[in-house]
Amino acid sequence: MGVSQRLKTRFRRFLQRPGTTVDLAPLEKLLPAIEARAEEMSALDDAELTEAAAAASSYEEICALGREAARRGLDQRPYDVQLLGAMSLLSGKVAEMATGEGKTLTAAIAAYGHVRLGNGPVHVLTVNDYLARRDAQWMEPVYTLLGLTVGWVNEASTPVERRAAYACDVTYVSVSEAGFDFLRDQLVTDVEDRVQPALRTAIVDEADSILIDEARVPMVLAGSVPGEQDPVHAAAALVRGLRKGKHYTVAEDGRSVAFTSAGLAAVEAKLGIDLYDEENVEQLSAVNVALHAHALLHRDVDYIVRDGTVELIDEMRGRVAQRRRWPDGLQAAVEAKEGLDATAEGEVLGTIAVQAYVGLYPKVCGMTATAVLVGDQLREFFGLEVAVIPPNTPCVRVDEPDRIYATRAEKEEALIDEIKRCHADGRPVLVGTLDVKESEQLAAGLNAAGVPCVVLNAKNDDEEASIIAEAGAYGAVTVSTQMAGRGVDIRLGGSDQSDRDRVAGLDGLFVIGSGRNDSRRVDDQLRGRAGRQGDPGGSVFLVSLEDDLVARHAGDTVPASPRMNADGLVTDAQVDYAVEHAQRVAEGVNHEIHRNTWRYSVVIEQQRKALAERRERLLTSDVAALMLLDKLPEKAGEMDEDLLARVARSIALYHLDRLWAAHLAELSEVREGVHLRALGRLDPLDEFHRAAVPAFTDLVPEIEARTLATFTDTEFDEDWEPDEAELVRPSATWTYLVHDNPFGSELDRLIASVGRRLAGSGAR
């Protein structure tokens, strides 16, 4: 079976499989017993409650005490469904809880329970620094009553602050900051410099976002490299004046671009070289990367420019992706395109994917509003099952069927008309757009139509809490990029709920999606902003046949002349199916890319773990000194025991860290070029392993050889420092996350093409 046929088979299976969830009946049986202890708990004074909390050892006790602590500390009495969620987290599940159902308090009770059950310390992993700080401070009164300490970490935290936060029973931290701390701890030369304790239990907030959408994102610790050169920056000037159609062509899916013969001739004339000569390979690569940045990446869609820097936009959340950068020179190319100085990428000293980092926790659980749709992936990649927690009050939101228009212009006109109609009645409207540019264009159109609105996008995401809090006010119109992970409830009548009854009488908040996203989960997150806790509400998505999702994944399945009304509204069941199927194919593409990326990461993660174990022995024992005594007894017998241990440790750790960085650089080069071997009918993954495994096998002997050579060639005294032997570590280090290359690898594009063919064949 060829690769294309295998991929088709996987896609069909992906599209057919329903998600399965766990049975909540065993946990539901505990609820009456928990409720029966309410009077007993309320009779305790605070000191007695704290004393009782220290002795809890069962789900029943944990939930009863947690409920009482929340009542006293927050004036909130958790509902039964929140206790079901907490018990699901305690049993190692991903709890799906609708927006507004109290996941933050649910997680706090579960964190307390994990500590009492001997699974502490607990790290609550969030999607950003704001939520880490907010939730830790918000839940602190509950933890205090339960006898636990709580801390939080953000990007600005000092090493001392980080060490103190991680020393608490429960620590709230974004997954990226936790991963960066892990990487930094992997390079310490003194145990006392570590900030993070041994990993035990992770409660993952927005679990589908972190464990699926960001799972393959590498977290990177980089160091300065003297004399870095940037050929891409120079190449950007060469392509700036090129024109589409004349000098280059863009593929229909917008993911690849190629020079025309005229364009290639123009660039070569400016350079005065033949780009395809063997000695000009680096220049050819730089020019191609610059062309990708020039033709395919768009300001206010893929990135924004703020304060003199390029900031990437997270397409799943519609906000700035903090400390994220594109790989393979693409970041520098975009910076050059915008006339900005290149930011240093540096030498990679350590890296770990989000999925691999979370996998280091012996116990993992999580919560989100949208888990069922990725239940298969959570099971495949993490061995996690989904527990669907029912809402405390049934949802009465009215979800209308999609309104599909023939053209984007007709859709945009209908969108403004619908918002005007709602606004005239005073009904609050939340509009979810697909990107920053669209949000600003819609806002301009609304203002021209006399409809005032507030815009929330990546350019002002620091104001998101205050903007979202008022989105349910009478007459409010809020235009926002994606709502996933925003972390703030929309209350009818505004933050003070002063007009709640008035808004409820207008059928509550109306959510409008300006187009379908590549993921149903993102759409569901947007829908979920209406109908919170039994509130009235409504939602609808407006789609056009010119939307990117439909054009990329369902163009061949849309009938040539679909039935439609005079205003362009399509009334054709085949088109309805095509739009739905396009979204499923897009999800399948992303799933397959995730699986493929992880297959390459597995061997690197195995090697990282093996080397980390060796490094731990070097750091915490005298194994390096014993090796020197064995191999070079004459020189090593001459030294003081403490000096020998310090010298041996410093030398061995230096060479281990340097060779691992070199190994990562080598594997990165192999990974970039390995797909070309598919042209020779070789399996790229096999070829990657064929290069990676021998290279790592040679690593340990080389570490020992270099350690011995440095020891032999160096004279030592009590004041010896590593730089005397030129064991110089980077003068500066920094951290960043590697954003997916939006154009993917050659294999990624093959997977996408299979998805498009599936859409054309109408696979179900």
From TrEMBL:
Q: Which PROSITE patterns match?
A: HELICASE_ATP_BIND_1, HELICASE_CTER, SECA, SECA_MOTOR_DEAD
Write the Enzyme Commission number(s) for this entry: 7.4.2.8
GO terms of molecular function: ATP binding; protein-exporting ATPase activity
Binding annotation for ATP: Q82, G100, E101, G102, K103, T104, D489
The molecule here is called Protein translocase subunit SecA
Q: Which residues form the Helicase C-terminal domain?
A: 414-583
Q: Which SMART domains match?
A: SecA_DEAD, SecA_PP_bind
Give the encoding gene's name.
secA2
A GO BP entry is:
intracellular protein transmembrane transport
Instruction: Tell me the compartments it is located in.
Output: Cell membrane; Cytoplasm; Membrane
Checking PANTHER family in the record gives: CHLOROPLAST PROTEIN-TRANSPORTING ATPASE, SECA INNER MEMBRANE COMPONENT OF SEC PROTEIN SECRETION SYSTEM
Which keywords belong to this entry?
ATP-binding, Cell membrane, Cytoplasm, Membrane, Nucleotide-binding, Protein transport, Translocase, Translocation, Transport
What is the annotated quaternary arrangement, including any partners? Monomer and homodimer. Part of the essential Sec protein translocation apparatus which comprises SecA, SecYEG and auxiliary proteins SecDF. Other proteins may also be involved.
Which residue ranges does the record assign to the Helicase ATP-binding domain? Answer: 84-245
- Highest taxon in the source lineage: Bacteria
InterPro entries, A to Z: Helicase_ATP-bd (IPR014001), Helicase_C-like (IPR001650), P-loop_NTPase (IPR027417), SecA (IPR000185), SecA_Actinobact-type (IPR026389), SecA_CS (IPR020937), SecA_DEAD (IPR011115), SecA_motor_DEAD (IPR014018)
SecA family profile domain location: 1-574
Q: Which Gene3D superfamilies match?
A: Helical scaffold and wing domains of SecA (1.10.3060.10), P-loop containing nucleotide triphosphate hydrolases (3.40.50.300), SecA, preprotein cross-linking domain (3.90.1440.10)
Instruction: Quote the catalytic activity from the record.
Output: ATP + H2O + cellular proteinSide 1 = ADP + phosphate + cellular proteinSide 2
Q: Which GO cellular component does the record give, naming just one?
A: cell envelope Sec protein transport complex
User: Family assignment?
Assistant: Belongs to the SecA family.
Primary enzyme class: translocase
Show the taxonomic lineage: Bacteria, Bacillati, Actinomycetota, Actinomycetes, Micromonosporales
Please tell me the species this chain comes from.
Micromonospora craterilacus
